[in-house]
């Protein structure tokens, strides 16, 4: 397994000193361009794997005779497992290095994607999706820590935005490709192809991502006892910081709102009065392009105007997009969904970059805790939204998501006032 950990023959103190002397990756250099391109590929693959099942929920309902909340488990079990794995992956990467963990994550999740495409039953498919979530835990938090360590801090917001742009592209491609391929072939072929992309991404990261130069190995006790001791120490440190806790809440609320909308918008599109065909549903997922644009844009704006102000603005824009979607017309729904997506990736980009700047120690664990909250928002709200859909259809979704966004705006106002500075 490729590793960016200092070799055993080099003393730790010497490795740390060498890391201090080496320059950061700077915007405009060849090394920086290669790093951002490779992280874009990694983010693309991870989120294609994670979200490729989301547009298939109506198909699962029809094929297996399950309810919408039951169908949403194909995503929820993955995000729940991912959230838990992130906590351990961050601690392991703090000790063993970043690059090797990212390569293993992509390779394992890709292989499990191929296996899930062959699963003969719904329960087995869910088990494989949960295992894929565990495997995927080795990339998002580790990638955030890698950026925080290797890139000039002045460019951290922009760089994180570029990485998140890759995740947006992956989420979009995973959704669109599964719809289109399922329409002409089957969902099994679509999910299998996404798995193959994950394996190719692992090879790309292994061969081309620049090794860490500023990684400092976290010392601690040996074995599980030492690992647990390090985890709890990091959790206590970060959870005692009110600014970080506010950022964790930002991730939970924003992602809960975002996934709920995308879980059930397909049901709304295919129901009266819209009655949209599957191809239209696939085209609508092109709104993810707005996320690819907004991630680096909002990341750059946060460096210029301050993350607090930009966070408030992007949260308000999410609420505006939700309101526009309430109009039962295809064009207004597309407009509202585009604004909602544009603003969501702004929230996520700003909060992600802010985590890396605020956490001075245990950065891998700080990123992991943020993403734990982020994906628990996806898991809990995404499933709960199904009951609102079942009871009140899109009106229920609007009320539920509107409540989450109201809390998000209040939290962002508190951060802008200085509690997370």
TrEMBL record:
Topology in membrane: Multi-pass membrane protein
Compartment annotation: Cell membrane
Domain of life: Bacteria
Protein name: MFS transporter
Annotated GO CC locations: plasma membrane
Keywords per UniProt: Cell membrane, Membrane, Transmembrane, Transmembrane helix, Transport
Annotated organism of origin: Nitrospirillum viridazoti CBAmc
Coiled-coil segments: none
Main location: membrane
Domain Major facilitator superfamily (MFS) profile stretches: 35-414
A single GO molecular function term of this UniProt record: transmembrane transporter activity
TM helices/strands, residue ranges: 37-57, 69-89, 101-119, 125-148, 160-181, 187-209, 244-267, 279-298, 310-328, 334-357, 369-388, 394-413
InterPro entries assigned: MFS, MFS_dom, MFS_trans_sf
